Structures are given as C-alpha cells and as structure tokens.
Amino acid sequence: MSEHRAVVVDGVSKVFNRGTPRQVEALVDIDLTVGGGEFVSLIGPSGCGKSTLLRLVANLIEPSTGEVLVAGKDAPRARLDQEYGMAFQQAGLFDWRSVARNVELPLELKGWDGSRRRRRALEMLQLVKLTDFADHKPWQLSGGMQQRVAIARALAAHPRLLLMDEPFGALDEMTREHMQAELLRICAETETSVVFVTHSIPEAVYLSDRVVVMSPRPGRITEIIDVDLGPSRTVETREDASYFKKITEVREALRAGEDDRETEAVVAEERSSR
Amino acid sequence: MIRRVALFLGSLLVVAAIWELYKLIGPEAGGTVFGARLLPRAQDSAMPHVWDMLSRFGDPERRGSDRANWRVVLAAAWFSFRLALAGFAIGTLLGMGLAMVMARFKVVERGLLPYLVMSQTVPLIALAPLVATWGGKVQVGEWVWPRWMSAAVLGAFLAFFPVAVGALRGFASAPAASVELMRSYAATWRATFLKLSFPASVPYLVPALKLAATSSVIGVVVAEISTALRGGIGRLIVEYAQQSTGDPTKLFTAIFGAAALGLLMAGLVSCFEYVMMRNRPRPEEDERALDTIRREALA
Ligand SMILES: Nc1ncnc2c1ncn2[C@@H]1O[C@H](COP(=O)(O)OP(=O)(O)OP(=O)(O)O)[C@@H](O)[C@H]1O
Ligand SMILES: [Mg+2]
To answer: What dotted CATH number matches B74-280?
Structure first.
C-alpha cells in the first residue's frame, strides 16, 4: 500500500544541539504524506524548518523522533537506492567541471558510460535552455543560469521523487515562469513526485496539488491547503479567479500562523508578569 | 608570460645596479652605524664586480684545469637538482598520503598533526648526520642505501610538511553543500574524494607545492653540506668558500648556481600550476566577486 506514497513523514520532530544552550526545536510533530505523482509545496516564514524537513526526507539528517519513509523504504535505504534527486538553495556546482560534466555527475556515480551520460546531459541542458553553454565553466554563468544547471543535474537521473529547496529563487520572472511550466510538464510526463520549498505564494499555488503552510518556533504545519487548478495549467491559469482565490487562502493561512504566535507571545508575557 | 619574464630580467638588472652603486659609494672596509657593524665591506674581495663574477664562469675552474667553471657549477647544480626532485617527489607523496589518512580518519588527524608540526622544529643540521648513519645501515638484499639518498630524504623531510598541511586544508575546503550533494548521491568516500575533495584542494595544493619545491632544495643543499656529500652544489659552496680569499668571485658562481636551482624547481611547479589552474576562476575574479558582496552587504 505504501508503494503509492512517495513520502511518508510520521510524527517527526527535530531538535538541533539538544542539551546545549544553542538548542533549537526546528520541527515538532510533523505528519505529511506525499502521494505518487503529487506536487507538494512547503511555504512559511524564514526559519520555520522547511529546509530541515526536506533534508530529513533526503536523509541528510536524522529525525530526533518519528519516522520517514521514501518510496516505501526507510529514508537511509532510499538514499542509498537513489530514490530521489535534489536541488538545493544554492546551485552548488563544481568549478572544475564544465556545465555538461556537472549535469553528468549523478550519472557518473551510477556508473553510466560516457556517451550515454553525455547524451542525457545535453537533453537536460536543452530542457533548461542552456545547450549553448554545455562546455562553459559554471563560474562563467550568471547566478540564474547556474541554478538552471543545478536543476538539470537534479533531473538527470530521472528520479521518481524530486526534492527542491527554493530552486527558482534566483531566476528572473520570465525564466521562472518558463521553468515552472517545464517542471510541471516533466513531472506530469514522468509521474514524478515533488516536494518543493518556496517563499512565493503564487508559485506554490500555481505548481502544487497541495500547499503545506508552516510556522516557526517551533516549526510545525499549521494548515494543508488543497489546490485544484485542473491537470493542465496554462498561461491563462495565472489569470483565473480560482487561482487568485487560492492565493488569498494561502496568504490568510500564513497570516493566521503569525497571529497564533503573537497570541502565544502575549499569553507568555502575561504569565511572566504575573 | 612574456611580461613576467621581462619583469624578472628587469629586476635582476636593478639588483645588479644597486650592487654596483653600493660598491661605488659604500665604505671600502665596511662601516658602523651607531656603533653596530652593519655596512658590508665594498672592496672587491667581499663584493666583486658583477661583470667579474659573470666572467668567472668562463674561466677554468682552477689553475691548470681545462674545465671551464660554468661546467663544474652546472654539473653540481644538476646533481643537486635531481636530489631535490627526488626529495620533492617523496615529500609530496608522503604529504598527500598523510593528508588523505588524516582527512579520512579524524582520530588520526588529532593524534598525528601535533607530531608533524613538532617534526619541523628539529634542526636539519642535527638530523642530517643521523639520517646518513641510519641510511648506511640499510641494506635490502643486493640493494644498498646510496649516499645521495640521505640528502633526498632530508629534502623530503622539509617538503612533506607544507604538502600535508595544505592538502589537509584543501580537502576540507569543499563547501558543506557539495559534501551534502555527494551524500545525497550515496557516493562512497572514495568517489567523494576523487570527484570533490581532491579537485577542491587544488587551489590550496599549488602554493603548498611551491613551498615544498623550494624547501626540498634547501633540505638537499644543507644535507650535502652537513653529510659532506660530494658532487652537489652544497659541497661546491663550501669548497669555494674556503678558496675565497684567493679567488673571491668563484664563490659567487656557486651561489648563482644554487639560486638557479631554486628557480628551476619553482618554474617546474609553476608549469604544474598553469595546467591545474587553467580551468579555474581566476583569483582576481574571486576578489571582484567578494568586493561586490561586500559592497552589497554595506548598502
Ligand atoms: N545544522 C543546524 N544546526 C543547528 N540549527 C539548525 C541547523 N539547521 C537548521 N537549524 C535551525 O533550524 C531552524 C530551521 O531552519 P531551516 O533552514 O529549516 O529554515 P527554513 O524554513 O529553510 O528557512 P529559510 O526560508 O530561511 O531557508 C532555524 O532556526 C535554524 O537556525
Ligand atoms: Mg531554507
């Protein structure tokens, strides 16, 4: 049954530096399920634990409590089996490799032979419109172009699950819209599931089947909003009334998270003054 | 490249000019400044004319000999160069090996690094005769420890340290995000080392190797002198120094030989640098990027 679920996060908490003065409760009691082929966005103010949640799913860090399953396996097994592709907040390209060879990196580690690697890398670069720059070095590219290379690298091995941490943050508006459309197309074609971190409400609404709204200190999920904009989103979708309605809904959910915190702060203050 | 060569030749001319100028105005018998003997003697026996030193290369090595002096100096420099190269190679391999083990096992780093630092405080002069003695006892089957090997080992002793420290810092210089990326690919330590840590270390390795190259020359020359190894430039300097009352310019030909040797080693590493760094962003570009970041941070 869990085969249909790309990600299951069950009762997960994460505390950094436990028992030290720098202890941080980054995440508390997170339950989240991402179905096969589903696109889920995480949104919330800075420091609410979005990246932490993503890194837990990627098994780059271990949860303090709770369980993470990816493709029906526990997270460490899934990482070893290369069940996901990842794009980080920073491009993180290797200076000494050409653009194409950067995209080839995950394929190299999988043991693909040279010509097959090269072909796939060029395919991916075409997708992000960087074919002409295949033999350039990353540091000869602009920040936005570098980010597109990183996305091509994340997609290169055609993973069933994509974990993306603000991948489009550095792009200009036009490229951003183009990349969003491409990402949706690729995911629909290959039935890839996505967990997508963003700061942009319109982006979250446009891309997602569900938007997960989080609030900080401690990081938790305050609301999960279903977005149903239909299977094929076009340019018109961005001008549709239902689109704007969802944007408002997410914005209000975000604000509610903030208000909760303010109330809590007031209560705590009253308590301490008593 | 051409500019750098021209700059180098130009600087040589400037040094020669200053030398001659001092001879012109400096005190013949040396001088004292506020009671301290600071000014060197400008007379020909202590500071020969530049052209006398250069022409000495063409004269016979000693009276009655038919070998020109430059041949003797060149042969000695070549001898020492090979030793220094051997020392440099051994030191680089050793340094890289140690750095790899230290990078792999943090325990080893904590345990070993202090000793490596300490090893460099042992005076070479004290170590040289010891190594020569130990070497003399080494015999594996037919193979006997050649005497020159001691000098090469002492060159390696000085060379390995900057390589070990530079490589260790270089391996650790890979950004945390890149390390995580490799982890997300479930890459083995070996793959992570070959594809990330090692290439990331190159900008640290280049200056370390430069230092190691010149250190190996110093190690070899000092070892030649303190183990009385014949054939190299170190021995020649001692020999010519003993003859310098009668033939002061001869000593300088040997010193020039030693300088040329150091330059040759440095040149070799520069070639390596060119090959390794040609695909990297230039430091100036990094600087410029940093500048922009700083300016943005201030704004
Ligand atoms: N390795 C770490 N050690 C200690 N604390 C950490 C670590 N990583 C994250 N944190 C803390 O956990 C909290 C959540 O961080 P996280 O990076 O997940 O936030 P985020 O939602 O991704 O923020 P942003 O939108 O700014 O990227 C922060 O308070 C942060 O200081
Ligand atoms: Mg983040």
So the answer is: 1.10.3720.10
